[in-house]
């Protein structure tokens, strides 16, 4: 029988060569990186015949592998800092990451509350920090090719520990800023361990220049102890030519309240993955999203919620507005394990199509192996309501303003889940800026 040779794309070949060149200089346990790279090499870049990537064919989209960004010089840091706009008006303790590397001179370490531990991931890897044992806490993510690539190349980021019983009143802001003149890739990893009874509001913003085809691959992992509360707000305002991949994992203990929202207005192609597992009873999770896309943007929201224990509640609400030739993707799956009785899960994706060229791919799924549960899912696609437009215009509003009001109300249903008033207002400003740029 003839041997079969699996053909590699130029990007896959470039990734393998890049890893061989860099693996000796990357911090931490090399065996972990090699294991992740071996898993990726076996499967390669996911393509449309891989069900989870049916609508986002990375093998076709990623033509060339960009080199991993080096730590920027002080002049480059200044340029990046001047272009960082997200959440700048909010009072928050900030950690700034430029081109995938922690910029301590642009961070505000002194503003972090007493007791909160923040260690750059580069240092944590080099010193085999004890908290690194919590990496990869969600098994479903470990075999994901995007996650594996991040594990193989992760260069920096942060390890954040919120001690038991600590109420962090001021938000922490992870500010990711990208800058440069030639294409580059980043691989950041953030581990957030919120111990029993602690609470945290974490902001995450991602920004970068237009006209540069850079390739960020970011992972944030939450390990949340019993009776803890986490509020996570993520803003994707990457440059118009970026191919941005991101993964969020969360392992929740008992009686946890966990809310996360991802707001997308940037990047040419983006994919945000969520892997969440309930490991303690009586916990609640909200996973929300808001997308504002135009031109030829492509945005993919894919999530997996695993109800592995009884008496937990999950809610997912995604609102997407598509203009021009933009494409949206929503893939959501809720799994209810055989013994996870009294599960309450609901998932909804709503889309407004503002042009004939826009398209949306919805694939909500339920896998239920228990009989005493309440679960449901739904998806809608449509245009703006002509009757509502007529009503507003009949009261003297110009058509553009009437459309903006309806779009704000539509997206606002997702953003309203943000409890912090200042953060909520900042997200409303993002929506308003996008709507104003539309006309």
Structural commentary:
The protein is an alpha/beta fold. The protein contains 10 helices and 19 strands. Strands 2-1-5-7-9-11-13-15-17-19 form a 10-stranded mixed β-sheet, with helices on one face. A 9-stranded mixed β-sheet has the order 3-4-6-8-10-12-14-16-18. A hairpin with a 2-residue loop joins β1 and β2 (101-102). The longest helix has 18 residues, at 421-438. The mean pLDDT is 94.
Terminal CA distance: 63 Å
Biggest pleated-sheet summary? 10 strands, mixed
Give me the count of strands: 19
Mean pLDDT: 94
Could you tell me the strand content as a percent range? Answer: 35-45%
H and E string: HHHHEEEHHHEEEEEEEEEEEEEEEEHHH
Helix content: 10-25%
- List the strand order in the largest sheet: 2-1-5-7-9-11-13-15-17-19
Number of helical runs? Answer: 10
Which stretches are low in confidence, meaning pLDDT under 50 for 5 or more residues running?
none
Shape: globular
Radius of gyration, in Å, reads 21 Å
Structural class of the helices, strands and pairings? alpha/beta
Short structural description:
The protein has 439 residues and is of the alpha/beta class.
Which terms would index this structure?
439 residues; alpha/beta; 10-stranded mixed sheet; 19 strands; 36% strand; globular
């Amino acid at each position: 029988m003839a041997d079969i040779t699996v053909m590699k794309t130029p990007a896959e070949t470039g990734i393998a060569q890049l890893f061989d060149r860099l693996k000796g200089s990357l911090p931490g346990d090399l065996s972990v990186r090699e294991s992740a790279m071996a898993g990726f090499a076996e499967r390669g870049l996911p393509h449309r015949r891989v069900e989870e990537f049916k609508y986002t064919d990375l093998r076709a989209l990623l033509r060339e592998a960009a080199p991993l960004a080096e730590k920027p010089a002080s002049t480059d840091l200044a340029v990046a800092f001047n272009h960082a706009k997200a959440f700048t008006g909010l009072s928050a303790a900030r950690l700034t990451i430029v081109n995938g590397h922690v910029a301590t001179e642009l961070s505000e370490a002194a503003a972090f509350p007493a007791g909160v531990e923040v260690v750059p991931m580069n240092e944590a890897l080099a010193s085999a920090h004890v908290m690194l044992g919590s990496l990869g806490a969600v098994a479903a993510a470990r075999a994901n090719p995007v996650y594996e690539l991040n594990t193989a190349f992760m260069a920096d980021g942060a390890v954040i520990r919120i001690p038991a019983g600590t109420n962090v009143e001021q938000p922490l802001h992870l500010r990711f800023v990208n800058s440069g003149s030639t294409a580059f890739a980043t691989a950041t990893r953030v581990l957030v361990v919120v111990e029993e009874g602690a609470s945290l509001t974490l902001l995450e913003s991602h920004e970068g220049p237009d006209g540069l085809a850079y390739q960020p691959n970011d992972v944030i992992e939450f390990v949340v102890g019993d009776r803890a509360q986490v509020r996570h707000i993520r803003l994707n305002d990457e440059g118009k030519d970026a191919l941005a991949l991101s993964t969020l994992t969360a392992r929740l203990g008992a009686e946890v309240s966990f809310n996360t929202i991802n707001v997308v207005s940037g990047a040419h192609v983006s994919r945000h993955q969520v892997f969440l597992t309930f490991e303690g009873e009586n916990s609640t999770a909200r996973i929300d999203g808001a997308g504002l896309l135009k031109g030829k943007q492509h945005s993919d929201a894919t999530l997996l919620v695993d109800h592995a224990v009884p008496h937990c509640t999950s809610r997912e609400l995604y609102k997407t507005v598509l203009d021009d030739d933009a494409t949206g993707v929503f893939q959501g799956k809720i799994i209810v394990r055989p013994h996870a009785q009294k599960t309450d899960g609901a998932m909804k994706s709503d889309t407004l199509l503002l042009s004939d060229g826009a398209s949306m791919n919805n694939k909500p799924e339920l896998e239920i192996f228990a009989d005493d549960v309440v679960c449901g899912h739904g998806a809608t696609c449509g245009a703006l309501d002509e009757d509502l437009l007529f009503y507003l215009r009949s009261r003297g509003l110009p058509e553009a303003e009437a459309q903006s009001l309806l779009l704000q109300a539509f997206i606002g249903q997702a953003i309203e889940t943000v409890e912090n008033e200042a953060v909520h207002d900042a997200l409303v400003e993002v929506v308003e800026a996008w709507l104003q740029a539309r006309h």
